[in-house]
Specification:
It is built from twelve helices and 23 strands. Strand 16 and strand 17 form a beta hairpin. The mean pLDDT is 97. The structure holds shikimate-3-phosphate.
Length: 450
Amino acid sequence: MSGHGDPIPMISHPCSGLSGVAEVPGDKSISHRSLILGALSVGETRITGLLEGQDVLDTAKAMRAFGAEVTQHGPGAWSVNGVGVGGFAEPENVIDCGNSGTGVRLIMGAMATSPITATFTGDASLNSRPMARVTDPLSLFGCQAVGRDGGRLPMTLVGAAEPVPVRYTVPMPSAQVKSAVLLAGLNAPGQTVVIEKEATRDHTERMLAGFGAEISIEDSEEGRVITLTGQPELVAQTIAVPRDPSSAAFPVCAALIAPGSDVLVPGIGLNPTRAGLYTTLRDMGADLTYENERTEGGEPVADLRARYSPDMKGIDVPPERAASMIDEYPILSVVAANATGQTMMTGVKELRVKESDRIDAMATGLRGNGVEVDEGEDWWAVTGAGPGSVTGGQTCASHLDHRIAMSFLILGMAAKNHVPVDDGGPIATSFPIFEDLMAQLGADIRRVSG
Ligand code: S3P
């Protein structure tokens, strides 16, 4: 089983205004997909702006294990020489996806319709997460999976030697499950149809079309119906990965709650399936503007400008917005703790099966630091007492979850006392430059030595 090494305890001290430009790294979802689709293509895919977080590096390593040639040429500049659809080789060893649910679930899909066997594992967080949500639909193609009790990793998949196409309605709002089924459908003859009742991030669909697959999307009474024609020849692409809106959320939210802040976060992808947090913040009264709005690589992009916003109010976040901001609820709860009144978040039970149970992890740390939080299986509510009201002082557990660690470090920036976090190590999975970037803006976040 992999791990990320010894815990890295950290402390975030209250700070005054953040200022400057925050250049956040490349989008994690698009980075994984660039490597996987590059590996399934013929020719050389060139990628710039690839996120070099551990999650994506683990996917790069996995693609090599399946036979692709993956090379780093410089910071964020990578190439992938693919093996083509159906060309995956059988890996010689166990595939270790570290902390990454996206990595393992998409790769399982990508290999499920090839006549090869592969065994997958990860760290303690990943090995406790549900995989049946992926292996159930993959079994319809003819793939077999044997894992631990409850459908957990480590798990071995025997790919279908004679795959059949599938029609599948995804039972939960999950882009990972949708993507796994689509990637499996690539090597099945005929048409694979995936139906999602609620729209989730659509990077896989957009990128499959970009790589030359025949894919159509139709809105119907059943939901969003995606039809993919199997066994295409995917053609290598040149990809410029946009900066990650989920990483941008941390400096943006820090600026909204740290008195006197004014921060510019340039070049952020604002695909509507990802941008729900920013709509929510504006609904709360945040001084958050979109500057220089443009389209890059087919995706809407803008520079985000966030200024200290002492007048934010709690709101009811519409449940239909949940999928477009699913990774942002932890940091939203930190903003809510500094707003006035109750922020009610409903339709969010998927938060309980992320890198950690994110409702439980945030509720526990927020309560310990003097914030009122109520919760149920599918909802939680944070009642803020206004700017500067969080007492702080209580150590928070990150539970091997990068977004929990970063959220509590941001909490400490606007609290009355510092906020310690037991382990900031997981931050390297998605935002390896977090500490340097926040320090440059004026944050006081330190590692606690021995
Ligand atoms: C992702 C999908 C989401 C999200 C994850 C990235 C993706 O997970 O939470 O961080 O890249 O497809 P689910 O599919 O489990 O909702």
